[in-house]
């Protein structure tokens, strides 16, 4: 069963491909998002196509499926309403699937399950990465604010940090927010006596 | 009045204006609604989010709502269209080369004369083995049907003399620039952006093909519209208030500034402003040309979902899908448009409410007073460029008379 993967994120495409391989689904083609879509699909003649929901080529792809003579059977998405739950899980995860009409449901299910899990894992990774980036940026801002306080108040680092923390607690704000305000005001008014 | 949340899907286009303005300008809030707008760049995703409950309602090309009710490409799902978001507002833009080959002047083309010129070019290109290719935004779009209506009437056979492919509106200008297509039929601001980028020139407004062509609608799942009947009425009132505001000449700049934002169209204010004010820059570097009623969002009860409009779209679907006319499908298509919901929502307001739910489409040459159960209703010229009228009660007869 040949599976084509179309994704605007090449990283996520690789993650899905790997997941499918682990599940023993080796016959797969990752479509180059920069290349001509219809021609690539035509050339690999897949039985299942996975595409991210936010891909700007979905309308074009569906038109191609509807018009295509090359794939001789129409490809339909989620036409089997008995499996609405899988379809919903897929849409929630951000992936859509097209399957050759008539392909047995028990053969599609594992593909969709892998895709859903990998999409979810990718979203988690992205969220963690964004969190890590924020944490790093926060740390840098706090360090700069501490340096400003140390310089202008003539205090040492633990005292500068205690000042930041105390003010944050009092004003019910995050330490990074207080630090950000100090850095901003220093940039605008630091040269004033 | 408790606050009701509504998530509304949309594609970045000028005619997504009403839900966006209802949200931004407090018309929704005044009805006790909290709107969240969900932006997507394909109609496929707008439709899937609606079907699987990621959104409660959506800005949608009218034929797609009908296609969904009929089970085209998705499991058949009963749909409700209680409000039309606007008429027309689309254009056909040629590549610079095709415009020159067809002898386009500085103004909008004449549908008949331009069609005759295009027919010759299309035949020459087909004979040379390089058929002209046009991009439309979706198979089930008014753009596709308007373009085909025009082409067929002027003697250019869609799918045999010329190719028609799908191009995402946001990439339409790119497709023209790359030579992937020779022309596009898309909504604004994407025609104007193609002109501003110097890669195309506007040949026709779709309003020249059908003076009052149904365009985007508010689409909902019928079960959601029924379960949330009261909230749906509030939504209709909020959209109606937004429409009344939107068509005021003194609000155009404010609307354009909102629609241009990255969260909405993410496009230049100027191109959006031209579309809203019915002024189109037709050729790169040219002065904008006024074309009245290019977009039509409010007057003449434009937001009323006439069942005959749905029937016309179904007729075009039948014409081009090659599936044959089916009276059951025709009834389902017409029933997707819900004038009953529109009337219930706007009863007791000043809005004119048509007495009928269906009418002869394309039969009016002059403005005429029409029967209403509330307010005074005036309907304007709604002609098709070929002078044909559409009788929703005789679709087979209508289809038989088409080229």
TrEMBL record, chain A:
Entries under Gene3D superfamilies matching the protein: 3.40.50.2300, Winged helix-like DNA-binding domain superfamily/Winged helix DNA-binding domain (1.10.10.10)
Residues spanning the signal sequence: none
Source organism superkingdom: Bacteria
Residues of the ANTAR domain: 122-183
GO molecular function, one term: RNA binding
One GO term (biological process): phosphorelay signal transduction system
InterPro entries assigned: ANTAR, CheY-like_superfamily, Sig_transdc_resp-reg_antiterm, Sig_transdc_resp-reg_receiver, WH-like_DNA-bd_sf
Residues in Response regulatory domain copies: 2-116
Listed name of the protein: Two-component system response regulator
Lineage: Bacteria, Pseudomonadati, Pseudomonadota, Alphaproteobacteria, Sphingomonadales
Gene that encodes it: nasT
From TrEMBL, chain B:
Keyword Membrane among record annotations: yes
Example of a GO cellular component annotation carried by this entry: endomembrane system
Ranges in coiled-coil conformation: none
Classification via Pfam families: NMT1_2
Domain of life: Bacteria
Cellular location(s): Endomembrane system
SUPFAM superfamilies tied to this protein: Periplasmic binding protein-like II
Main location: membrane
InterPro entries, per database record: NrtA/CpmA_ABC-bd_dom (IPR044527)
The entry's keywords: Cell inner membrane, Cell membrane, Membrane, Transport
PANTHER family per the UniProt record, alphabetical: ALIPHATIC SULFONATES-BINDING PROTEIN-RELATED, BLL4572 PROTEIN
Listed name of the protein: Nitrate transporter
Organism: Sphingomonas metalli
């Amino acid at each position: 069963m040949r599976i084509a993967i179309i994704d605007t994120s090449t990283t996520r495409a690789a993650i899905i491909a790997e997941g499918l391989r682990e599940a023993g689904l080796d016959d797969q083609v990752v479509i180059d998002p920069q290349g001509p879509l219809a021609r690539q699909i035509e050339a690999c003649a897949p039985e299942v196509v996975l595409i991210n929901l936010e891909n700007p080529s979905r309308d074009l792809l569906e038109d191609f499926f509807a018009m295509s003579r090359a794939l001789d059977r129409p490809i339909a998405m989620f036409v089997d309403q008995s499996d609405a739950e899988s379809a919903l899980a897929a849409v929630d995860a951000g992936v859509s699937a097209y399957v050759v009409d008539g392909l047995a449901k028990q053969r599609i299910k594992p593909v969709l399950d892998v895709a859903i899990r990998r999409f979810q894992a990718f979203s988690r990774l992205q969220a963690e990465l964004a969190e890590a980036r924020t944490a790093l940026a926060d740390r840098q801002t706090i360090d700069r604010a501490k340096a400003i306080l140390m310089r202008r108040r003539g205090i040492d680092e633990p005292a500068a940090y205690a000042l930041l923390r105390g003010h944050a607690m009092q004003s019910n704000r995050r330490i990074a927010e207080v630090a950000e305000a100090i850095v901003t005001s220093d940039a605008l008014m630091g040269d004033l006596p | 009045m408790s606050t009701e949340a509504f998530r509304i899907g949309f594609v970045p286009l000028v005619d997504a204006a009403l839900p966006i303005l209802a949200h931004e300008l407090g018309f929704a809030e005044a009805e006790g609604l909290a709107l969240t707008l969900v932006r997507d760049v394909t109609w496929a995703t707008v439709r899937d989010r609606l079907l699987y409950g990621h959104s409660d309602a959506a800005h949608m090309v009218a034929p797609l709502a009908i296609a969904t009710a009929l089970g085209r490409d998705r499991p058949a799902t009963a749909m409700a269209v209680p409000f039309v978001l606007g008429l027309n507002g689309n254009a056909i833009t040629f590549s610079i080369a095709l415009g020159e080959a067809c002898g386009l002047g500085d103004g909008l083309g004449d549908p008949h004369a331009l069609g005759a010129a295009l027919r010759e070019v299309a035949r020459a290109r087909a004979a040379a083995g390089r058929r002209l290719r046009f991009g439309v935004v979706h198979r089930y779009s008014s753009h596709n049907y308007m373009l085909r209506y025009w082409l067929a009437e002027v003697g250019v056979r869609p799918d045999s003399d010329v190719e028609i492919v799908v191009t995402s509106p946001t990439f339409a200008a790119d497709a023209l620039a790359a030579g992937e297509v020779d022309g596009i039929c898309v909504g604004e601001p994407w025609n104007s952006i193609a002109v501003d980028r110097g890669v195309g020139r506007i040949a026709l407004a779709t309003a020249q093909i059908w003076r009052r062509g149904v365009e985007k609608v508010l689409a909902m799942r019928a079960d959601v519209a029924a379960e949330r009947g009261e909230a749906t009425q509030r939504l209709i009132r909020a959209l109606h208030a937004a429409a009344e505001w939107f068509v005021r000449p003194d609000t155009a700049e404010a609307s354009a500034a909102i629609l241009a934002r990255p969260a909405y169209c993410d496009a230049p204010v100027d191109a959006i402003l031209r579309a809203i004010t019915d002024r189109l820059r037709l050729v790169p570097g040219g002065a904008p040309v006024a074309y009245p009623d290019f977009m039509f969002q409010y007057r003449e009860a434009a937001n009323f979902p006439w069942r005959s409009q749905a029937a016309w779209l179904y007729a075009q679907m039948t014409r081009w899908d090659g599936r044959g006319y089916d009276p059951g499908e025709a009834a389902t298509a017409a029933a997707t448009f819900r004038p009953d919901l529109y009337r219930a929502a706007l009863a007791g307001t000043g809005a004119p409410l048509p007495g009928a739910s269906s009418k002869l489409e394309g039969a009016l040459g002059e403005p005429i007073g029409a029967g209403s159960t509330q307010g005074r209703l005036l309907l304007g010229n709604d002609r098709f460029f070929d002078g044909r009228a559409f009788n929703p009660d005789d679709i087979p007869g209508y289809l038989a008379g088409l080229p």
